[in-house]
Design brief:
It contains 14 helices and 24 strands. It has 427 residues and is an alpha/beta fold. It has two domains: 204 residues, UDP-n-acetylglucosamine1-carboxyvinyl-transferase, Chain; 208 residues, UDP-n-acetylglucosamine1-carboxyvinyl-transferase, Chain (Alpha-beta prism). It has a four-stranded mixed beta sheet, covered by helices on one side. The protein has a four-stranded mixed beta sheet with strand order 2-15-17-16. Strands 4-5-3-14 form a four-stranded mixed beta sheet, with helices on one face. Helix 10 links the parallel strand 18 and strand 19. Helix 1 packs parallel to helix 7, helix 8 runs parallel beside helix 12 and helix 10 runs parallel beside helix 12. The longest helix is centred in the middle third of the chain and has 14 residues. The chain starts with 10 loop residues before the first strand and ends with a strand. The mean pLDDT is 95. It binds ligand EPZ. The site of ligand EPZ has 23 residues, from helix 1, helix 5, helix 6 and helix 12.
Length: 427
């Protein structure tokens, strides 16, 4: 199955300063789709809807097929059907895990359903060290024997996992998701303290509950799970992507004549909207939509990333571009991934005035005129920031290595072209 052309050598050519007007439909959330696909390992079959057809979904599909799962993808309908009633192995090899850290999400489901799992230890990535120690520690507290050998996490729970009282010393999104999935088939009650409250965690809990799990408190920092014997197949439609929403809100604030975003959940981007308001940008908000126009004047604001409901680290790079157009000095601090600033060097090539201050802090001076140049995408959200910068820069920008972008933004070029942007893929 290959619903994507591999776009390693592809580039994006963008001509800047064209005002954008029209409608953009927000796609399903990548970071909801990935745990939902992993949850398919907890039962025989799942039908998932509103799945974004992006590269990371393809990676997770290949991983599950590698385990022996059977996947049917209806690309046009954004649907995925996964049948796992004859898995062949509990081993998630390095070839899949190296492409996507979220592969760690199969550890909990495999361990709790089959009593063992072997998952390659996920490497780091561009945005910084990405340990999984909290996943492993908490699974051990649930009775798993886990050791790491030759780069592989080898986990065993012969007599199944035991419900336990657990606490995360650091809020971890996939850590919370992994433990929640491990706990739904464990014996007895599991309590997770300092759980992640991201909407994607709540979405996963809602899917598991529909499958027959007993979960209370998802969306708060205290989640209680009562283990059940088994979960049953269901159909489920996942939530819209709040980071895609935020990305287009920034684009509209900078170069939108009248951009209408629909099929979104305003509550999920509240921290971003409030920050935009602080910068002097006001949006029209509907039940499941926003209308955004370019701001006449943008005020400098300080940003500090926090777990949900705080300002998301996944929006830090995009908001940085907006602040290059603010009149004054802004400070951005990423408390979650202090090294997540690879986009800075590329934005400097476009004329931005940004200084790295160390310990996860940068200062952005505005208002600076950006001018088109050749730049290099390094990770998913950094590449989104380069697209935003290219849309406001004068002249042409060429972004190399856009496979990073295709990991998490569905049909980005099409969506921007449809509202008047001049953007095309080139070899
Ligand atoms: C999820 O990653 C998201 N990915 C990331 O989105 C997002 O940036 C991140 O949460 C923070 O919101 C998915 O949901 C698939 P964490 P995750 O565990 O779960 C430390 C994107 O662009 N930590 O919440 O891997 C960790 O180092 C991606 O879509 C440990 O120390 O992040 C970080 O400082 C990029 N030990 C902090 O916790 C652990 O065992 C939060 O990480 C786990 C995490």
């Amino acid at each position: 199955m290959s619903f994507f052309r591999l776009s390693f050598s592809m580039k994006l050519e963008i001509s800047g300063q064209r005002e954008l007007s029209g409608e953009i439909r927000i796609s399903g959330a990548k970071n909801s789709a990935l745990p939902a696909m992993a949850a398919s390992l907890l039962t025989d079959e799942l039908l998932l809807e509103n799945i974004p057809m992006v590269e990371d979904i393809r990676s997770m599909a290949l991983l599950i097929e590698g385990l022996g799962g059977r996947i049917k993808i209806q690309k046009k309908k954004n649907k995925i059907k996964i049948n796992n009633n004859n898995l062949k192995t509990v081993e998630a090899p390095y070839e899949y895990v190296k492409k996507m850290r979220a592969s760690i999400l199969v550890l909990g489901p495999l361990l709790t359903r089959f009593g063992e799992a072997r998952v390659a230890y996920p490497g780091g990535c561009k945005i910084g060290a990405r340990p999984v120690d909290l996943h492993i520690e908490n699974l051990k507290r649930m009775g798993a024997e886990i050791r790491v050998e030759h780069g592989t996490i080898i986990a065993k729970a012969k007599d199944g996992l035991k419900g336990s009282r657990l606490s995360f010393e650091k809020v971890s999104v996939t850590g919370t998701e992994n433990i929640m999935m491990a706990a739904v088939l464990a014996e007895g009650e599991t309590i997770i303290e300092n759980a992640a409250k991201e909407p994607e965690v709540t979405d996963l809990a809602n899917l598991l509950i529909k499958m027959g799990a007993k979960i209370e408190g998802a969306g708060t920092d205290l989640i209680k799970i009562k283990g059940v014997k088994e979960l049953h197949p269901v159909e489920y439609s996942i939530i819209p992507d709040r980071i895609e929403t935020g990305t287009y809100l920034i684009i509209g604030s900078l170069i939108g004549k009248e951009l209408h975003l629909y099929n979104t959940i305003p509550e999920h981007v509240r921290s971003i909207v409030l920050k935009l308001n602080e910068a002097g940008i006001f949006l029209e908000e509907g039940k499941d939509s926003f209308t955004v126009k370019r701001a006449k004047k943008i005020l400098p604001v300080d940003i500090e990333t926090q777990p949900f409901p705080g300002f998301p680290t996944d929006m830090q790079a995009q908001f940085m571009v907006l602040l290059t157009q603010a009149e004054g000095r802004s400070i951005i601090r990423d408390t979650i991934f202090p090294g997540r600033f690879h986009h800075v060097d590329e934005l400097l090539r476009l004329g931005a005035n940004i200084k790295k201050l160390g310990n996860g802090e940068v200062s952005v001076m505005g208002k600076t005129e950006l001018s088109g140049a050749e730049v290099l995408a390094t990770d998913l959200r950094a590449s989104a920031s380069l697209v935003i910068a290219a849309l406001i820069a004068n002249g042409k920008t060429i972004i190399h290595d856009i496979f990073h972008l295709e990991r998490g933004y569905e049909r980005l070029s099409e969506k921007i072209k449809k509202v008047g942007g001049k953007i095309k893929k080139i070899k």
